[in-house]
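Annotators were shown the component list below and the corresponding predicted structure, then asked to write short factual statements about the assembly.
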Amino acid sequence: MFAYIVRRMFQSVIVLLVVGLVAFSMFRFVGDPIDNMLGQERTQADIDRLRTELGLDKPFPVQYFKFLQGAVQGNFGVSYRQGRPVSTIIAERAPATLELAFVSGFLAITMGIALGVFTAIRRQGVAANVIMTVSLIGVSLPTFLIGILLIYIFSVELDLLPSFGRGETVMIGNWSTGFLTSSGLKALILPAITLGLYQMTLIMRLVRSEMLEVLRADYVRFARARGLSDRVINFRHALKNTLVPVITITGLQLGSIIAFAIITETVFQWPGVGLLFINAIQFVDIPVMAAYLMLISVMFVTINLIVDLLYYAIDPRLRVDARAT
Amino acid sequence: MILRNLMIAASATAMMAAGASAETLRWARAGDALTLDPHSQNEGPSHTIRHQMYEPLIIRDVTGAFEPALATEWGPKADDPNVWVFKLREGVKFHDGSDFNAEDVVFSFERAKQPNSDMKELIGSITEVRAVDDYTIEMVTDGPNPILPSNLTNLFILDKGWAEANDTVNVQDFEGGEITYATTNANGTGPYKLQSREPDVKTVMVRNDDYWGIDQFPMEVTEIIYTPIQNAATRVAAMLSGEVNFLQDMPVQDIERVNSADGLMVKQAPQNRVIFFGMNQGADDIEADNVDGKNPLADVRVRQAMSMAINRDAIKQVVMRGQSQPAGMIAPPFVNGWTADMDGESSTDLEKAKALMAEAGYGDGFSLRLDCPNDRYINDEAICQAAVGMLGQIGVTVNLDAKPKAQHFPLITDSKTDFYMLGWGVPTYDSEYIFNFLVHGREDDIGTWNGTGYQDDALDAKIKSLASNTDLDARNADIADIWRVVQDEALYIPIHHQVLNWGMADGVGIEVDAEDQPKVKYFTMN
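Structure shown to annotators:
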């Protein structure tokens, strides 16, 4: 067990290093940050001075090494665009993204499971068919289009919900939350739906097909033959047995909700880390891009590591293999 | 039915909210100020925000004319052309209540000359600023500088005592990530006071009721809520839904939509920015073409022919949806040296263009790469695409290479492009600025944006002499001569002047200013 964990941790570190290396080698193609940082009146001397100051005159492996040196000490450098430490900026922006991810994740899971169960049980019903058809929109339309559509309907035409921003936020310690004000909650609705719609349809379709499978299983027939009520059969026996794959998928999707919040955040001007990343790309803000990419890969690597460890705990065959080698 | 009731309820609350905050300017544009430190980051959106809270000695009003701000009178000293004298406004107070006087001006100029300041180039000619008495300042320059006031309109004055008390005597080291008190706080003499600020999210300012000019200007806005909204569609949606009542950076394709919406309108004016193509005419051979051993762009006839092939009216109608003003010279209107005649000199004449090409020995044409930005100017890439088709008609086969601005501009400064798009604004409103950057041969600190390889010693000398020529008539004659050369040599291919569009809700009254710097004290609200 211990050797397995150590091996997986070691692999994770290598993955992180490679991600960082690839990221750094790409930054050269994003453009030259110097041009954005100095106005049109700058002279060649200004350009050279700033380039040396930022260490951009060094080859990228050296830049990468310096970045790693800082990163292991928790220092991600200074944003070129905002002139503030990247770690401060990310800490400021993280609550917005995490709250949005939490709400859309919650929406996706509850709505996804409820609708999945409903469409499985009433699979011939009109309502179920309508839901199935509409859910195609969730999978087939790109996020930014869904966002713009929602803004158009609920902000411009109906004037019910705000089209951008987070509304009023309240500071609890270092955490800015939008959960405690009515404008903050209203502002959450459209972005959360936009971000969670894809995951919701995914979970719904997964639950539905698993459920249909389980409902055909022998033990459900026996349960029915025993005269148990539909409710007990559907929820206690069938649903419970469909949840295993759903939990696996949900865990993996949680990472992508945070990582792919970029588009939703841009459409709704949601002040989270995704929007920060987009701004950073346009400005060639290398320290912010590097820190963001590293954080996202740390997150994915951690999730994968936990999933692997869970498999190890759940699946006895892995333990047997480990002992054999 | 329920939905309908909800809608009625919602619109009722929206109306009540609007009634209660009728004098709030809810203002959105694409980007935010990078810092509040008055002398860090010489950049448009940063200056715009500072202008509400800080003041320079002189500002430009909506027409671009000088208007007294913290200085009431100014002029060169009668017996010494190297000295400018400024009379300061008396009885002005900073937001924290301390008095404004000459000491603060001297302090601010010294601060603006520090190495970390972004404003130091603009006042590079000033060698000393001295206080004659509490309300008189003398600025000594390293030679006569006839257009000194033009360089001072974004040079803000802060309180010496406040800076010392809050440890912000030095300009923040922006690249080094330094955050000082002045980065996030403001204490100016301006018409609005900072209430709260979250960078990239929201900045709130309230009216300064002790402002010296409160009776001279409308000052009808009592509160400003400034929100950057990056996505163009969301920005327009925020305006359509009434969440925002003043919008900068209006996307061209949405102007009709906003204009036709109830209670909204779009106002426009020519912007201080001209768009043009540059050509590498200095090199013996260029990389981006298919002609070996020769540089077709070195031939003035080819350059004239290429300019003639561009149909500027078509670009205006099709690409810009009417939102541009075809240009014949690379100076925005209202810049000293601009003339209507020269701005009308570009024409479209395919026959003549083909004849010129044949005369130059390129009757069969040649091919060339055009470098173009795709996120800098209004519809920049689309303009380039249109130009590709138009140049094709005279046999110049153009391969378009469009990139983000961060990749495009280094090509020009590093001389890695032979045919490129560039836009230029003139903060000093004087042609000398254009000549210094775009016409003078490229050296370390002058001609830095001249990617044409053009260089003429006599012309360079004439450009340099403009800086210290105090005889304004003779200076203007020189400017006209230099422009004649630029025009005759077809140094650049002018395309058009950009048009600025500001969206506003009914009741918000303001004229568009060419610098794209709304100053809220001029706004009326009814």
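Statements collected:
1. Chain B has a mean pLDDT of 89.
2. Chain B touches chain A through 56 residues (CB under 8 Å).
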